[in-house]
Amino acid sequence: MNPPDEGPAIPSSTIADNSPVLATVNGTPITESVVALYEQQLHARRPGNPLSQNRRAILEEVINLELARQSGESQGLDKDTKIQLQMDQQRRAVIATAAIQKELDSRPITDEELKKLYEEQAPSGAEYKARHILLKEEDEAKTLIAELDKGADFSELAKQHSTGPSGKNGGELGWFSPKQMVAPFSEAVAGMEKGTYTKEPVKTQFGWHIIILDDSREASPPPFEQLKPQIQTFVQKQRVQDYITRLRQDATIEIKEEQPATAADKPDPADTGSAEDKP
């Protein structure tokens, strides 16, 4: 979870801020802590922005924001329900992010943990480059194998008949390791010779496959240090997911009404792959 894109913290009588006052705006103090926080947020959102390197310019921007805030309050905008909801949501996001960061800090990720995952997940051994045609019925698969025996083009048959996401690309799966595919698929590929296709359909939980092996090679995994940032991000996301799962298990959650799915919630069939279609 990334921190929300909030604006600068504005001094409040309820905030114990004893840092030096750098400016006042109609009597409201702008402190060193406020400017430092805004500078940090600005750099996080726009690291290449020259403003983030100019402390006086940052102070001037905070002053401008404070003037606009005061103007908005004088117009009663802070009483608007929509504005109040936005402020409440921003507060919720800030506190939630702080809680998640505290959880991550309490369970630091070690190099030993990352190296173990690297050894488990880094590709090693044989890799394969293959195409496949996924079908719902075994008889249909056998019919297409008979067409291949007569010289039909594999990729064209995949485009015309495959029900898998890769069908539109001629069944191309690219390079993959055996553990990336379901067991029956991997076992079939491992027993094939380059340039051959399966003479009998291969059954998995997704249907019936006709597979052609285009190439094979020995995998050369990238060094640990190269993959370390990716593995660390993965572990961090898993930590957050575990934390949220524990919170949900201990919480009483009542969903009053199911909301209809929006267009953004509906998966695109073209982007939804099976386990045998490489992630």
Question: What is this structure, in a nutshell?
Answer:
The protein is of the alpha+beta class and 279 residues long.
Main pleated-sheet profile: 4 strands, antiparallel
Helix content: 40-55%
- Output the number of helix runs: 8
Output the strand order for the largest sheet. Answer: 4-3-6-5
As residue ranges, the low-confidence spans are 1-13, 267-279
Oligomer: single chain
Order of helices and strands: EEHHHHEHHEHEEH
Mean pLDDT: 87
Count the E strands: 6
Would you kindly provide a written description of the structure presented here, covering whatever features stand out?
It is a single chain. With 279 residues, the protein is of the alpha+beta class. It is 45% helix and 14% strand. The strands form 2 sheets. It has a 4-stranded antiparallel sheet with strand order 4-3-6-5, with helices on both faces. Strands 1-2 form a two-stranded antiparallel ribbon. β1 and β2 (28-31) form a beta hairpin.
Overview features:
single chain, 279 residues, two-stranded antiparallel ribbon, 45% helix
What's the helix and strand layout?
Layout: E1 21-25, E2 28-31, H1 32-45, H2 55-74, H3 81-106, H4 111-121, E3 126-135, H5 138-149, H6 154-161, E4 172-176, H7 183-190, E5 202-204, E6 207-218, H8 224-250
Antiparallel strand pairs: 1-2, 3-4, 3-6, 5-6
